[in-house]
Amino acid sequence: MSSVIAVTGASGRVGGRVARRLADQGLKTRLLGRDPARLPDLPGAVKAPPAPYGDAEAVRRALDGADTLFLVSAHESPDRIQEHRTAIDAALAAGVGRIVYLSFLGAAPQATFTFARDHWHTERYIEAQGVPHTFLRDSWYLAGFAAMTGPDGVLRGPAGGGRVAAVAHEDIADVASAVLLDDGAHDGAVYDVTGEEALTLAEAAEELSRAAGRTVTYVPETRAEAYASREGYGADHWEVTGWVTSYEAIAVGEMGTVADTVRRLAGHAPMTLREYLAAHPRSYAHLL
Fold this sequence. Notes:
By secondary structure, this protein is α/β, with parallel strands linked by helices.
């Protein structure tokens, strides 16, 4: 193939894996990341200079000559929707003819998880441009269970007894790569990308306990308790709201979707939490 696929977030845990999978298939890629020094050295890859999503000209230059764009969402911010729109406009000005966007499960204008609303607005903007596109709506990351558990061995949040079918970065990358490699076959599709086990946070804590060899517990919080327990991070209110509502989305059932997308598109079963922890012991090193 002579086409060029641009991969944003190519120094990250999804984008980096996608870039490597495409390189393994002999594709030409254009790699974008916040810090070009952290971009991987891959055959057939060109490292783009810094191109923040809000800088239209920088993004246009970085994507000049690319045919397809794998768009990983920008870091959460109050301006993220506008940053996405600016990047999309710049991509189209550069001649990009297809966009594969990494969205989020349950993206909707009134989603409980406030950051999922940004993804819905971004999806609608891409659709309005008339460009061929595919949306990959991934679930919580499996890595999040350990990351959100404190060194005290407590996973706390207002998730109640709700369930979440979390998914591994590796499985998301496999799905994204399959879509990017199959030019045109997935145009207009929206795929939920999830694990195949929908766990409560109490069940996740049990798996963390087994892996870490110590007791890890889940402590349900009220909304007020959740805000209070996160005050020490010094984050802005909008960011804390995103954290808290991610748990509340679990509580109301918006994260319990189980899809077979990984099996259908990647050709294998998605990783379970137990398998993930076995493969990534560093993810829970703070619990040892």
